[in-house]
Automatic annotation (TrEMBL):
Protein name according to UniProt: Serine/threonine specific protein phosphatases domain-containing protein
InterPro entries in the cross-refs: Calcineurin-like_PHP, Metallo-depent_PP-like, PP1_catalytic_subunit, Ser/Thr-sp_prot-phosphatase
Gene3D superfamilies: 3.60.21.10
Residue span, Serine/threonine specific protein phosphatases domain: 53-58
GO function term, MF aspect, one: protein serine/threonine phosphatase activity
Pfam families tied to this protein: Metallophos
Length: 110
């Protein structure tokens, strides 16, 4: 299964590999909250090895768009998982998104 094949943080930490994730982490998949929380944990534990870029779904207007994404939007997933705390959690996730860069330099290239 997917979960059994996912890279564990411990595996990555000791590999010395640098990871660049390219955005759209919450683009309407059924596990958007789990994906972004996993990536945030990855970044916290390996700040010099993990880099997250911002995609268009990391914008409040997109990840809160219930009319377009319905139950798949990040806001609805937060409401389903966290109930009364959903708006606070959704806002805090978006504050993290606000701080993400739009591009990265790799060997002096964008």
């Amino acid at each position: 299964s997917f979960v059994n094949n996912i890279l564990t943080i411990d595996d990555a930490r000791y590999s010395g590999t640098t990871f660049l994730f390219l955005g759209d982490y919450v683009d309407g998949g059924p596990h958007s909250v789990e994906v972004i929380l996993y990536l945030m944990a990855f970044k916290i534990l390996m700040p010099g090895q993990v880099f997250l870029l911002r995609g268009n779904h990391e914008l409040r207007a997109t990840n809160s768009n219930v009319s377009r994404y319905g139950s798949r939007c990040l806001l609805r997933q937060c409401q389903s998982l966290f109930g009364k705390q959903a708006s606070v959690i959704h806002e805090n996730i978006n504050k993290v998104f606000d701080s993400l860069p739009l591009a990265a330099f790799i060997k002096d290239q964008i």
